[in-house]
Amino acid sequence: MTHGNGNKPEVQERIGVYVCHCGSNIAGTVDVVQVAQWAAEKLKHRGVVIAREYKFMCSSLGQELVEKDIKELGLTRVVVAACSPHLHEKTFRTACARAGLNPYLCEMVSIREQVSWVHTDKIATTAKAKAVISGGVERVIHQVPLEPLTVPINPATLVVGGGIAGIQSALEIADAGFHVYMVEREPSIGGHMAQFDKTFPTLDCAACILTPKMVSVGSHPNVTLMTWSEVEKVEGYVGNFTVTIRKKARKINEELCTGCGICQEKCPKKVIDNVYEAGLGYRKAVYTPFAQAVPRFPVMDVENCTYFENGKCKACEKFCPTEAIDFNQQDEIVTINVGNIVLATGYDLFDARRVTNYGYGRLPNVFTSLEMERLTNAAGPTNGAIVLRDGKTTPNAVGIIHCVGSRDRNFNNYCSVICCMQSLKFAHLVHERTGATVYNFYIDMRTPFKDYDEFYQRVMEEGTLFVRGKVAEVTDVPRIPSEEGKLIIQVEDTLVGRQRRIPVDMVILSSGLEPRADAKETAKRFGISCSINGWFIEKHPKLDPIATMTEGIYIAGCAQGPKDIPASVSQGAAAAARVLGKIEQKEMALEPVRASVIEEQCSGCRICNGLCPFNAISFHEDRMVSEINPALCQGCGTCVAACPAGAITGTGFSNDQIMAQIEGLLMLNVEKEPVAA
Amino acid sequence: MTETFEPTIIGFTCNWCSYRAADLAGTARVKYPPNVRLIRLMCSGRLDPTFVFKAFANGADGVLITGCHPGECHYIEQNYKALRRFILMRRTLQGLGLEPVRVKLVWASAAEGVKLAGEITSFVEEIRALGPLHWGKSDESSSVIHQPSSLQEEVPA
Description:
Chain A is an alpha/beta fold. Chain A contains 17 helices and 34 strands.
């Protein structure tokens, strides 16, 4: 015999083994009585002083059994062979703690999910249960007492993204009395919602409900608002993040600027506004994106400013009554400390140019949904007049195409959630303002939330025409005289079962939502991940759609997946509630499954440095050793496995423990007991 | 000797995906052969190649490594490290004159109980077809590769 447990020195520990029947769930395929007897006899030399079987170990009587043995028999280790540790590890650890044993000296091995429920041969299953228990016993010998780590929680919070989700989150936290830093990369907060005219299904004006909230954020004593700014670096861990923010140079002294708007008025340079006006309108080279912008300070567009082009002009400086123009202003790097972070970075609109057969960018009277939002907006480039690209002609017939870039294998498989309702809203507005005939081309109508279907009924009653079918093509090539000068929508009407060509004057593409183009880099910066489609991944798709796998980082709004305004607001508020819960704890306990470096054994090779996705490992140049920050470490153990010097240990999953468990699991083979008879 | 060879397989699972897949296989009562004995790690990235050779040295005929699907790792990207090590381990096994297919890597999400059970079943058959490894039976061969911390413990008294 070479390597079994037979020739190992006697173990000093006093181990109790508890085998659960789980009614007949385990006892049905595992001879639990025999297993307990075997453990008491054959594992005696491994320190097992007592082995019991019981009907339901997790019952209070079962737990008392363990507690009593710890006290009376002086057990130093406990092995519970029952269900999956994911179910009852905490139960038995707590029981051990009640009896005065460090909870981490209790090892739970599964003989139900991984044994009795998946095998049928009683002899083989019983043998496997023995092997699993033997593995647990060997492993628990090497377990060491652990204490949970506690870290203090910094009460300040960072909210990234000033759209409606971020605004809601920031206000909830600030109203509760805690400080919020809000970072927004555009010159103003407000997000996509600030571009909209009406909101479905109630048709209340977006600005009327949004701008008061924006003002609250801007004037809240607990909010530090940083627009025209971006997060560059995130270090630290839950409760103690250090965030580096780049405040891009506005070329405006915020201390002096009153937001009077004279500089915008006097600036001679007009620039097409591709962001706020979706390319339909102009702004100046020094500008606030819209009249109600928060903050009111303008931003200078250096790339388009005449002064930065040829050194002349300075009209803004000349007319500024407070001397707030500062052409020499540079980007500023700000470092803040926060305990929690809410990411509400929003979405990008699907680029409709990619669906070439719909002609966007080639046929002038094909519009995207965002262009349509600006066109219908009373404060938009046409003052709310729905007209063709020439700026004056009112359309007589309008086609609205749903699912552009969504539910389409060529682009995005997912449903963008908002487009059906948005299309209905456009149908209503076009109908109301122009009296035009409106066609909606849909694959399926999806109107599932409160008052949404009622809105659909209303739009149908208004006379909007619905054609069920995916549009094949939008073309300006006529086949018959009545199609001349029109855009022709070629579609298979699947309810009639035939091809149709419908001439219209204007086409609106209800483009889908896409993750931000830089969502992956953002995720990496904050230590979270993106799904296959590129949305931020939540901790659990149903039970925790707000937290992420990284403690202290929460997600809200469309950054997590397409959603409408009510859902974004709900998620923003929910994220705030989670943050407030963390703040109120003041400090939090972390599972003590962590890696640490034994300095004497570290050769300073730095192999581990690049392996950690949480940046928990730092290198000390002076001592030439690596060190692991226990609060940053998530306990994956990759560095433990990689250290060529064996200088990194992982608590809870040490090399000794796993090696011993392998030995224990294979002990029966060494003893030449057949696995299956 | 007419009895069929029953291989012993050590399976490494990660805490977040594949162990939960094994839990799910149990809850759903999906059946697979009892030849596999599972060890739970926090992450497939924790898998030290030493563990694999230790398992072979102690009598395992095959080693199954499982983890979250690429892109779905709980620890962001550590399963890619497991993947790299897996490829190296297969090459090393070949260098040692062993069949590299005695180590197998399977991705299984927490929802893929049926898939995991299927992979275990086919792996048991693959190893059964290869025959026993007999590594753990030869003397003094078991402590070939060890890290210092475990060496200290393993040195015979």
